[in-house]
Amino acid sequence: METQVFKIPESFKKDFRYTFCPGCDHGVAIRLVGEVMDELGIRENTIAATSIGCSVTLYDFLDVDAIEAPHGRALAVATGVKRANPDKFVFTYSGDGDFASIGLAESLHAALRGESLSAICINNTTYGMTGGQLGPTTLLGQVTTTSPTGRNVEYYGYPIKIAEHVALCDGTAFSARVSLDTIVNIRKAKQAIKKAFEVQLHGLGFGFVEILSTCPTNWHMSPEQAHERVRNEMMPVFVPGIYKDVTEKLF
Amino acid sequence: MGNFKKIGDTIENVSSEVDMSRIVIDSEKCKACYLCIKECPKHLIKISDKTNKLGDKIVEFNDSQNACLGCALCATRCPDMAITEVYKG
């Protein structure tokens, strides 16, 4: 008797096809969101607010109601959606440029207000969709199209560590940084996404997950090399871990 | 007793009577990133000569020795969900 151990999550649209570049970890991140929604049984009750960048196409794949809030306003729009419909599950899905540069005010103030929302931020250290420009999370020394000699502190300053900043906000219930470079880390990422969703379902506050992802096209690397870069260059700077978890005190 | 196979029967003959682990690949979803090839502990996934509509040389699953574990590591890694189903026998 054979048992099915893997299937496309029920939360996905029929006949979807990802439009990301080959090897892009956005696909894994969205699949994990779909799997978590299946496990929590919340798809019918979910409203997503999407951003600008490669993450914008979320609503082409997930079978949920979604509202487009480009240029960093995802969490501002999500705040309105959640306050008007407190019984709905509301989450945002954005990239690092959207969350931590264009929309840093909206993002951090949603956390400071302790909005009952879940936010997912994909950190690939560059602006992927627009051609690989220097972003808020670009590593020191990293060559991009707008930092051709590499990011240096004197001219560009330091990269932002988003999960730590969100964890410092008093309204935050859960803040974690995860990676998708290995199977083990993919499983940990799913647990973190589930926790960030559950804190909203229990009304504990703001749930946040920063996901270290790859951009093989703009890094000019093969998908496998891109994962090695995440391990060797990104993870020592953006250290994965749980930075705040209020549920530890509750249970 | 008639159902028992004699010693010396090939694996191929026996395998038809039991459900074996296997994966299903959607060739139109595969974008030829080849991340799954390294993940398979039994090295059952290889680059094929077949191409999809976009002209990518897609991967193929070749398990003539029924070595697949049904571990779903390949499907967990695949960023495009081109490995749509995994069965554990």
Record the SSE blueprint.
The complex is a heterodimer of chains A (251) and B (89).
Chain A: E1 3-7, H1 26-40, E2 46-50, H2 58-61, E3 65-68, H3 74-84, E4 89-95, H4 96-102, H5 104-112, E5 118-123, H6 153-156, H7 162-168, E6 172-179, H8 183-201, E7 206-212, H9 216-219, H10 223-237, E8 241-245, H11 247-250
Parallel strand pairs in A: 2-3, 2-4, 4-5, 5-7, 6-7
Antiparallel strand pairs in A: 6-8
Chain B: H1 11-15, E1 22-25, H2 35-39, E2 45-51, E3 57-61, H3 73-77, E4 83-88
Antiparallel strand pairs in B: 1-4, 2-3
What does this protein structure show overall?
The complex is a heterodimer of chains A (251) and B (89). Chain A is globular and about 50 Å long. Chain A contains eleven helices and eight strands. The mean pLDDT of chain A is 95. Chain A has a single domain, classed as Thiamin diphosphate (ThDP)-binding fold, Pyr/PP domains (Rossmann fold), CATH 3.40.50. Chain A has 251 residues and is of the alpha/beta class. In chain A, helix 1 crosses helix 8. In chain A, helix 2 links the parallel strand 2 and strand 3. Chain B is built from three helices and four strands. Chain B has a single domain, classed as Alpha-Beta Plaits, CATH 3.30.70.20. Chain B starts with 10 loop residues before the first helix and ends with a strand. In chain B, strand 2 and strand 3 form a beta hairpin. Chain B is 17% helix and 25% strand. The mean pLDDT of chain B is 86. Chain B has 89 residues and is an alpha+beta fold. At the A-B interface, strand 1, helix 1, helix 8 and helix 10 of A face helix 2, helix 3 and strand 4 of B.
